[in-house]
Structure prediction request, 108 residues.
Amino acid sequence: MTSGQAADILAVPPATEKRAILGLLEPTKVGKIEEILQKHEINILDFTTSKFIKCPPDMTVQRARRKFREMARSMDVVMYFYIVNETGRLLGVIGIKESCLWLRMMRC
Prediction:
């Protein structure tokens, strides 16, 4: 078993059980496993953003393109349009690359 696999398993039990299990392992492996476990504790919310482009399902392509141009200036990366209803419920997701391909086809 690799150190990464062991860390995945040890990420589940309570701290007391984790320490007991680590006490049974080779000291050289324990250091690697503990290092990986510390990285497991990084909060996923540190990698999220509240800035995203959401559009109603009836928005025209031209309006969506304008909205994209306006909003993308203040964003690091834009990968998707999120299609939401009037209450904000997610109806679908369109990738930017997919939407660009669709726009090129519509221009024909």
User: Anything to note?
Assistant: Residues 44 and 50 are 13 Å apart (CA to CA). The chain has a mean pLDDT of 80.
